[in-house]
Amino acid sequence: MIDIDGNTKIVGVFGDPLGHTLSPLMHNAAFRYLKLNYVYFPFRVKKSSLNDALKGILTLNICGLNLTIPHKIEVMKFLDEIDDEAKLIGAVNTIKVENGRLKGYNTDGRGIFISLRKDCRFNPEDKNVLIIGAGGAARAIAIHLALCKARRIVIANRTRQKARKIAQDIVRQTNCDAIDIPLKESALIKESANIHLLINATSIGMNPADFRLVKEKFFERASNLQLVYDLIYNPPLTQLLKDAKKYHIKTFNGLGMLLYQGVLSFEIWTGKKAPVHVMRKALQKAVKNKG
Ligand code: NDP
Fold first, then answer.
1. Which of 10, 61, 98, 289 has the most CB atoms in a 10 Å sphere around its CB?
2. Counts of helices then strands in the chain (DSSP H, E)
3. Pairing of strands 62-67, 81-82
4. Model's pTM, two decimal places?
5. Would you say the CB of residue 181 lies under 6 angstroms from ligand 1?
6. Can you tell me which atom of ligand 1 is nearest the CA of 158?
C-alpha cells in the first residue's frame, strides 16, 4: 500500500470504460519502489464530462494524467500547449500540469519504438513496415516510425479511408514513403515479399474465435519478414503470433508497448528515471492473473 498524506501528488487516467486498465498497477509499483510520494488513480470520466473533469484537475492539484478511450482526441482543444509529435499524431495520451498550465504529449508511438529497439533488438530505420489497422494506436505508431526514418509504411485497414488519411499525412509531413491498401488477402500478399516488420494494430486476435488477419500464404512469401509485433497482450500469444512462429519469424506481443508508453509518461510527470524492471514485473503479473 502507498501511504497517502497531505503531500501526496496525484496522477491518474481519464477514460470510460476503465475496467481493463493495468496502468494503476504499473505506476503505483514504480512509485512504491522509488519511494516517491505519488499515487496513480483511475478516474472514470464520461465523454461529455471531459471539460469539467479537466477543470477539476487544476482545482484538486492533480499533477499528471493519462488519457484513454474516448478522450485522446477531444482533450486537445482544452490544453494550453501540445508537443509537436502529439500535434502531428492528432491525439494526446499524457498531460503534465505545471504552474496551472496543461501540456499534452503522445507516448504511444515512442513506446512501441523503444520496445522494438530494446525488447526485439529491431531498428525500424530504413525498413518497410506493414501496419494492419488505422485506429488511434496505428496512427501514433505509423507517424512515429515515419519520423524515425522507416523507409516505407504500408497501412491496411477495413475502412480504407482511415488508412489513406494516415498515409497521406505521413507523405505530406515526413520524408517517409507511405501507401494504403485494402485489408484483403491479395493486397497483403502483393506486399509480403518487401516487408521487414508486420504490426497488428487492430483488435482482431483478442478473441480466439477471431478470423485470421493474415493467411499462411503471406508468410510463405514474406522472405524478408524479420518480426511480427501484435499490439494485443491478452491473450499473450494470438493466432497471428502462433502462425508467424511456425515460419520461424520472431514475435512479440504488446506488453512492451504498454510498458514503455507508461515509462515515458512516468518520466514526464516525475522527471525521474522510471524503474522499468519493476513496471514490467507488475504488468506481467497482472496479465498472468487475468489470463
Ligand atoms: P481503435 O478503435 O482506434 O481502432 C481499432 C482498429 O481495429 C481499427 O483499425 C478497426 O478497423 C480495426 N478493427 C476492429 N474490428 C475489426 C474487424 N472486425 N475487422 C477488421 N478490422 C477491425 O483502437 P486502438 O487503435 O486504440 O487499438 C487497437 C488495438 O491495439 C486494440 O486491440 C488495443 O487493445 C491495442 N492497443 C494496445 C496498446 C498497447 O500498449 N499494447 C496501446 C493501444 C492499443 P476500422 O477502422 O475499419 O474500424
1. 10
2. 11, 12
3. unpaired
4. 0.96
5. no
6. 47
